[in-house]
Amino acid sequence: MDALLGTLAENELAVVRELRPDRLTSMDEDELIDLHARARRQRDKYVKQYRRQAAKSIKDAGGRGKAHARNARARAKAELFENVLAGVSRQLAVVAQASADALHAERVAEEQALAAPPPPQPPRLVPQRSTTRPKSPDLKKRRASTRATNARRQARRDSA
C-alpha cells in the first residue's frame, strides 16, 4: 500500500489524505460533495486507463490472463480510489440524511405554527356585501340584460 501511495501525484494523494476519519467528520455537505467529485474523477481516470491498457495488451500478451499482471498498478490505483469513493459516499450519505432530517423538522415546526387555529371571531349579525362589483365582461352583459328586461316590463305597465 505504501508503494502504491508513493506513485500517486500530489493532487491524488491529497484526495486519499482527506479520507482520515477526523477530516471526514469535520467536513460539511458542500466540502464532501467536492471531495466526492474529486475522488470520482480519479477513480474514473484509473478505471479507464486500466481498461484501455488491458485491451491493448491482450493481443501482445496472448490472452486476458497473461495481460492481467502487466496492468497491476493501474488496477491497484483504480481499486484504491474506488475505496476512497466508497468512504466519502458513506460519510456524504450520513451528512445528507442529517441535513434532510433538520429540514424536515423545520418544515414540521412551521406547519404546526401555521396550523394553530385562529381565535374565534364574534358572529356577524348582518352579512356585509362588497361595495365594489366585479367588472368582468360577462357580469356587465348580465346586468345590462337584466336592466333592459326590467325597463321593458316597466314600459308595458306604464303604457297600460
TrEMBL record:
Biased composition (Pro residues): 116-125
Region (Disordered): 109-160
Name of the protein described by the UniProt record: BZIP domain-containing protein
Annotated organism of origin: Paractinoplanes rhizophilus
